[in-house]
Amino acid sequence: MSLPDIAQRLAALGNATRLEIYRCLVRAGHPGLAVAGIQSRVAIPPSTLSHHLKRLVAVGLVHQERQATTLVCRADFAAMEATFALFANECCSEEPAYCQPSDPNQPCCE
Length: 110
Prior knowledge:
This protein has five helices and three strands, in the order ααβααββα. It is elongated. It has one domain: Arc Repressor Mutant, subunit A (Orthogonal Bundle). It has a three-stranded antiparallel β-sheet with strand order 1-3-2. It is of the alpha+beta class. Helix content is 53%, strand content 13%.
């Protein structure tokens, strides 16, 4: 994944409302949530929710699927992992002596 793609995704999540929407979808897991379910959780007008969902879809963090008359939104977990993997994979890459992971298979520092 390119740095410009990651920057666009992080910029989309830099808005508190979009971050809250995305958090709801991440917490919902793979089944996702209907737009009405998201709206009840974040309590914003439908047009505002639509605007924010459109941005999350545009950067690839959310996918939408129509099921009859219901629009279901799901977090794209692969995109989420790829977006944040940049930081985990480069943790202490220039100063490995400072990196002390509790699990040697994990790149994160403690």
